[in-house]
Amino acid sequence: MTGRPKIAIIDSNTLSLLGLKQLLLNVLPIMTIDTYGSFAELESNDSEQYFHYFVSMNIVISNRTFFSKRRRKTIVLTLSLNDTSQLSEFHSLCINQPEQQLVRSLLMLEQHAHAEGRNLPPMPRVLQQKILSDREIEVMALIVQGYINKEIADQLNISLSTVITHRKNIMDKLGMKSVSALTIYAVMHGYVDINKI
Asked: What is the 3-state secondary structure (H, E, C) of 25-93?
């Protein structure tokens, strides 16, 4: 695992910490993600080794000097879109929103900062390979755009049971259990434009 860029999440809310870590691992599978419950924990673990810091707003405010010097690497975790005014110098991510919106916000941040994987190491060869058939890719694209099975069947002119079979095969082949993970995969591999989700 050495050599992978590292991200730090610093938040005293354990559930928030673990949930965000899981989402980030889906969005950036090539990253190593460390979690800290406090700024002191981060400081005692070579804080300069990180590519990005995802930090709760109260920790940024309490340690503003440190994060201001690293503002290009810092993403502030806010609870509301209105919270960002006092920290306008930083990128921010509202974590108090539905999962689909949060995934979209993470993908937008990633694509804004690292379009075409700029500054990121290459994906492992296994993740670069084409795993899905052309028809499965079509079905996946419609799933992540919010279409239900019946609409997918109508649009692709296939039976409902065929859609269900494709859906199961897609999830099995990719080892995914949620539409959010599928959405991340589809956008990161260029199968779906982020503006369509």
From this structure: HHHCCCCEEEEECCHHHHHCCCHHHCCEEEEEHHHHHHCHHHHHCCHHHEEEEECCHHHHHHHCCCEEE
